Amino acid sequence: MAGLERDRVFTALTRPQMFAGVTYGCFVANAVITAELFLILRSPWVLAAALVFHAAAYLACVREPRFLELWVTRLSRCPRIPNHAYWRCNSYRP
Q1: Residue 92, in any domain of the structure
Q2: Which whole number is the average pLDDT over 6-19?
Q3: Which residue range is the domain that position 25 belongs to?
Q4: Mean pLDDT of the chain
Q5: Local structure of 18: helix, strand or coil
Q6: Structural domain contains residue 5
């Protein structure tokens, strides 16, 4: 089977809202966490850490734009089971 064609309009309509190369939710979370840490620690190094996190989030968004939403869904739907250390795997709860 030949490769599928990708329509730019369809791709643009299905992508999440982006700001500065990352999803809007990721950008807001980064801004809120950075502001809180800056107010608590009073250190300019927090701003450097925010830039590093933004760069990592940008690289993750290039591969999968909804990586943060997928990760949150995975954490909420698939918690650790009591014997995770023994079996080294996770399970869905019924």
Answers
A1: no
A2: 78
A3: 12-87
A4: 84
A5: strand
A6: no
